[in-house]
Design a protein that fits this description.
Blueprint (H helix, E strand, L loop, with lengths): L2 E5 L3 H11 L6 E6 L3 E3 L4 H6 L8 E3 H8 L2 E4 L2 E5 L4 E4 L4 E3 L2 E4 L4 E2 L11 E3 L3 H17 L4 E5 L3 H16 L6 E6 L10 H13 L3 E4 L2 E3 L3 E4 L4 E3 L2 E4 L3 E2 L17 E3 L11 E3 L4 E3 L8 H20 L13 E5 L5 E5 L2 E5 H19 L8
Parallel strand pairs: 1-2, 1-9, 2-5, 9-21, 11-18, 12-13, 12-18, 13-14, 20-22
Antiparallel strand pairs: 3-4, 6-7, 7-8, 10-19, 15-16, 16-17, 23-24, 24-25
Length: 373
């Protein structure tokens, strides 16, 4: 029997689960994921800010897998042998595959921040972040002059800084401060000047210190490339991504940074029985930014091509739009819209974002009430 192994329950893989639930393929399908829930990253800043409960942001993979006839294994990939069509899991299990779908995301690059020890909180894995954040918020509410430093000036770092500041304010944390450390080139790379201007103005308005320098952690905070230093009770790392280290020995073709190299069909350029989507891969034909937007939109293409490969049908290409819409949460129920050169901001943008995010969650949460332990 044809065995399809799906590694990771990321945004693109959700489309695969939905598609397999609608098809009767007669295959052995296995989903390998660390836990039963997929946390939707688009709603994470809203959860930090206190607008959502954790259950609002979680997709239960168990009813989706059950509906699709997929076996669930709660573990993680630690090795792929593309020559032998075999994966090795962190629990010691070895599984052979006929087809492999990778949507395991990327890792946070902590190379300059590891000296922070227990003060360091990487944004990934998300499950670890959501487990630790309530403790940090509680500590900040009981401690005078709590200092939080967010390192990383991309969309994730900016949204996290806004969300943390709002949480501190609403929880009446005594003189808790938030600093955002971006690179020398500034915040929100790839976005229009107007978007960056709006974000900088709001950071200043909300009392968030913006520093443009490289940060290296110490036992008590961070040392900056401009000669300054910042004390920190906690350092949130939203720094650049890096590919999973086990890819180096997978025999899969990789790009210069170590991501799985895929074609327009999101199929490995070296092993056609391996497909990948999301942050774990990079296109060989076009430059595609690592973004949840592309992971979501590539999902239906990934699902179609996995099934088409089994049935011997034609594959589809994922053609990203020229411009992608980004809605950046800014703490309170307020957001910035970024679409090419266009930008806007306001509470109405947050309501728009909330509507889109909740629609996405309803799409994959419709079966939640049917699941029973």
């Amino acid at each position: 029997m044809y065995r399809l192994i799906m590694a990771g329950g990321g945004h693109a893989q959700l489309s695969v689960l939905k598609a397999l639930a609608q098809k009767s393929l007669g295959i052995d399908a296995v989903l390998i994921t660390p836990g039963p829930y997929q946390i939707y990253s688009g709603m994470l800043p809203g959860w930090i800010a206190g607008h959502y409960s954790l259950s609002d942001c979680q997709i239960d993979l168990r009813p989706l897998a059950k509906s699709a006839g997929i076996r669930l294994i709660f573990s993680q990939l630690v090795k792929v042998n593309a020559k032998q069509h075999r994966v090795v899991l962190s629990n010691g299990m070895h599984l052979d595959y006929d087809g492999l779908s990778l949507d395991v995301g990327s890792e946070t690059d902590l190379s300059l921040l590891e000296a922070a020890g227990e003060r360091l909180l990487p944004i990934k894995p998300l499950a670890n972040f959501v487990r630790r954040w309530p403790t940090i918020l509680n500590t900040a509410s009981q401690q005078d002059h709590y200092q939080l430093v967010v390192v990383g000036g991309g969309a994730a770092g900016v949204e996290l800084a806004f969300a943390a500041q709002h949480a501190f304010a609403t929880q009446r944390c005594k003189q808790a401060t938030v600093a955002l450390v971006a690179s020398e080139s500034g915040i929100l790379p790839g976005h229009a000047k107007a978007v960056k201007h709006r974000a900088r103005a709001l950071l200043e308005q909300r009392g968030i210190t913006l520093v443009q320098a490289q940060a290296v952690s110490t036992s008590g905070g961070v040392t900056l490339s401009n000669g300054r230093s910042l004390a920190a009770d906690c350092i949130i790392a939203a720094t650049g991504a890096r590919p999973p280290t086990w890819l180096r020995d997978s025999d899969l073709a990789l790009d210069e940074k170590g991501y799985v190299l895929v074609d327009a069909h999101h199929r490995s350029t070296s092993h056609p029985n391996v497909l990948a989507a999301g942050d774990v891969c990079m296109r060989s034909d076009i430059k595609l930014a690592h973004s949840g937007v592309h992971a979501v939109f590539a999902g239906p293409v990934l699902a179609h091509n996995l099934i088409a490969a089994i049935n011997g049908h034609a594959l589809e290409s994922y053609r990203p739009r020229n411009k992608s819409l980004y809605l950046l949460a800014t703490g309170p129920k307020h957001a910035i819209a970024s679409w090419g050169a266009f930008s806007a901001q306001g509470h109405w943008v947050w309501r728009w974002k909330n509507w889109i995010d909740r629609r996405f969650m309803r799409k994959y949460g419709a079966l939640d009430n049917e699941y029973k332990e």
